Amino acid sequence: MSMSGLYSDYFGLTERPFKLLPDPDFLFWSKIHKRAYAVLEYGILSGAPITVLTGEVGAGKTTLLQRLLRSIDDTVTVGLISNAQGGRGELLQWVLNALSVTSDGNGDYVCLFQRLQDFLIHEYSEGRKVILIIDEAQNLSPEGLEELRMLTNINSNKDEILQLVLVGQPQLRKMIMHPDLQQFAQRVSAFYHIPPMDRDTMGEYVQHRMKHAGGSGHEFTDQALDRIYQASEGVPRLVNKLCDFALLYTATENRDVVTASAVDEVLSDGIFVGNFDQLGEAAE
Questions:
Q1: For the AAA+ ATPase domain, which residue ranges apply (predicted)?
Q2: Taking the domain 31-194, which CATH number applies?
């Protein structure tokens, strides 16, 4: 078995079905993800000033976001910020960079704000909507969130010149619900939290990804899926990681299907460290 093929050749797959990188082509439209995507679309189409989507690491937020970006037409100007940090003024520079707005090098906050306002008004006069998407928004400080809220004050009375979409881990929801951010929370018109998958949904998710990669969808026994669910608690990133290694172990043992014992071997070897991932081992 070659390193390039890993277990894919053994199972007759066209690619690895459980890669950790977000891939919109592999998106499994569970009931939960359909609702989450509907809320994202609603926020944009309804002109919501702020839309918020939260979920655990690996819940599929970034994948949904990438699918959303694919669907946005050319009449919309989109700025995407990932892992923005910094104090007052620095976030505003992130915003300008995301929207490809050049500045004259003057880092004065008032000048930066005026530059952004001029750009937004120009886009509005040209009939273009501007959407600013902040991924990993839980890394923003409360001051950063308040600064974003202030940006929505640029909006006119009738139309939203700037719309914000914030995507982040569950702590983002806790931040927004803090009494000090009451004004921010009041501007959130659309909000959805993606919970982990239940056992049945996880089984459908694994089957979907195996079929999409060229498999039959029956490569895992029910008992193996039970063990995967117990270890992952239904978090997609953890499911992916455990399924990936379980397929590898099964291929090296020349077995036809992934059994519960193969999953147990992965767990006993310490390769799968679920709790570390849940604390945010890697950005989604």
A1: 47-189
A2: 3.40.50.300
| Token reading at 45 | 């189409």
Separation of alpha carbons 65 and 165, rounded Å: 10
Task: Give tens-digit pLDDT for 8-57.
Answer: 999 999 999 998 776 767 778 888 999 999 999 999 888 899 999 999 87
Q: What's the pLDDT score for residue 103?
A: 72
Residues 6+ apart with CB under 8 A from 130: 76, 77, 78, 79, 99, 120, 123, 124, 161, 162, 163
Alpha carbon separation from 109 to 85, 89, 188, 253 (Å, rounded): 16, 5, 25, 62
Fold of 197-269: Helicase, Ruva Protein; domain 3 (1.10.8)
* The pTM of the whole model exceeds 0.85: no
Query: Which residue type does 269 have?
Result: D
Q: Residues 6 or more apart from 4 whose CB is under 8 A from it?
A: none
- Spatial contact of 189 and 77, defined as CB atoms under 8 Å apart: no
Residues 13 and 22: their CA atoms lie apart, in Å, by: 19
Provide the residue ranges of all domains of the chain, joining segments of one domain with +.
31-194, 197-269
Across 29-117, the runs of DSSP E, i.e. the strands, are 50-55, 76-82
Q: Cα separation of 39 and 29, whole Å?
A: 14
Phi, psi (degrees; rounded to nearest 5) at 43? -60, -40
Q: For 138-205, give the secondary structure using H, E and C.
A: HHCCHHHHHHHHHHHHHCCCCCCCEEEEEEECHHHHHHHCCHHHHHHHHHEEEEEEECCCCHHHHHHH
Distance CA 219, CA 49 (A): 45
